[in-house]
Amino acid sequence: MNIERNRGIALISVLWVLTLLTLLATGLSLNSRSQARQSSNITHAAQVRQAAEAGVQLALLMLAQPLDQQTWLADGNPYQVRLDDIEVRVALFNESGRIDLNAAGPELLDGLLATAGVDDDLRARLVDAIMDWRDGDSLRRLNGAEADDYLAAGLDYGPSNTPFRSVGEVLRVLGMTPDIYRRIRHSLTLRNPRNSINPRYAPRQVLLALPGSDELTVDQFIADRRRSHETAQPLPAIDMFPRALLSGGSSGVNYTVHTEARMNTVYRYRLTASLRNRRGRPILEQITQEFIPLFTEPDA
């Protein structure tokens, strides 16, 4: 009787040991899979980041070529490069083609906001509030905003009454929203000190911001401009745009490059880099991670 009972106890002990070993093996297996996934995620994240950085280097290499041999036009139109299974999109901007947040007058600012679908009333308030923010006085424009208006809106700050120090600072302007900012972000700059844009390099949205512009005219101009660049021909006619808001001559030395690297639909990395190009000697001044996508197709 004791022998049978001891055998039963031994059998139960063996079963418990087997159960514990099974649970331990399962835990080790799950942990190994989790570590493998984490390792794979880290590897893929590093790969897309390096691919985005490679896009910046490619833009630097392009600018180092003689002007008549540069196959890319610095108008913000994206170029696509494939690095193994990573897709890299690169957009090069000559800053003379973008709207300067500190220099642009009401017409350009209003036109840009209109391209973002902002209604007339809010546009009027935003334009005046932007100009109130950057001017050197505390006088309120008709639709603008000074310190009392920010206080009344429950904000603990007012306009700086100094030039914008970054494009992102416009988010602090009374009435500006993240959605509006996201729609206009890549058409703004602080490195084109003119109340005008260079039509040779102006992106599509900037051209649409010009008074009297329409999509058909702008798209045709962009196609003609790209063709002229590829065949080393003069800039096509620009008489459809208001002359007072166009600048010509030197294209300046300031450039920005936006890159986005994609690996399937999961891994993405964006960079924005500021460049200065003097006599075919491009220099990388600053590079930061970009969180606002420039490329919206197909699923950004």
From TrEMBL:
It is found in: Cell inner membrane. Transmembrane segments: none annotated. It comes from the Bacteria. Residues 103-190 form the T2SS protein K first SAM-like domain. Keywords: Cell inner membrane, Cell membrane, Membrane, Protein transport, Transmembrane, Transmembrane helix, Transport. It holds the Pfam family T2SSK_1st. Its main location: membrane. Belongs to the GSP K family. PANTHER family: TYPE II SECRETION SYSTEM PROTEIN K. This is Type II secretion system protein K.
